[in-house]
Amino acid sequence: VTTDAAGQISQIVAPGAATVNVDDADLPSGITIIGGDTDPAGITVVAASTTAGSTGYELDAGYGLVEGTVYVDEDALGAYNAGDTPLANVDVVVTDSAGTTYTVTTDANGYFQQVVPAGSTTVDIDDADLPAGATLTDDSLAGEGSDPTVVIVPDGGIATDNTGYLLSGSN
């Protein structure tokens, strides 16, 4: 079972003992299970009910997170806000401070994230995945308007790079 955008899973199983085992090969480098959590985790499934459980992870020392939203800048303000339309299924190429490249795809909310070593990280939107006629919006005051963009990922922290586009025939 694959996690959804919120990191949750759901699977119908028979009542009784069950085991949830996270496939460690799918986890990014730079994270560790939170103390007290276990993997694999045993749970008891009760008939006709929902059984909840969780396995938490935290960033290792020397790592951070780069995240952002790719969107249509509906109001042409140059900064992501509630009136804008997220762009799903856009590939984002992230190159970390060690030169390692990751390709992540935006979810239904136009959101992407990647765990990377702390330091200078380049975020590059794959223009081939954008709607025809999309042009980069510009608002340097909001910290948006460049592609590719270099962000500084803090140790244990988050760097955000939102990237907006205007469409031909719109604002």
Protein model, in words:
The protein has 171 residues and is an all-beta fold. It has no helices and 14 strands. The strands form 4 sheets. Strands 5, 6, 9, 11, 13 and 14 form a 6-stranded mixed sheet that branches. Strands 8-7-10-12 form a 4-stranded antiparallel sheet, with no helix packed on it. A two-stranded antiparallel sheet has the order 1-3. A hairpin with a 5-residue loop joins strand 7 (91-95) and strand 8 (101-105). The mean pLDDT is 85.
Q: How confident is the prediction overall: mean pLDDT? A: 85
- Percentage of residues in strands: 35-45%
> Can you give the helix content as a percent range?
under 10%
Cα distance spanning the termini: 42 Å
Q: Let me know the largest β-sheet.
A: 6 strands, mixed
- The Cα radius of gyration reads 19 Å
Task: Please report the number of helical segments.
Answer: 0
Structural class by helix and strand composition: mainly beta
Order of helices and strands: EEEEEEEEEEEEEE
Shape: globular
Low-confidence stretches: none
Q: How many E strands?
A: 14
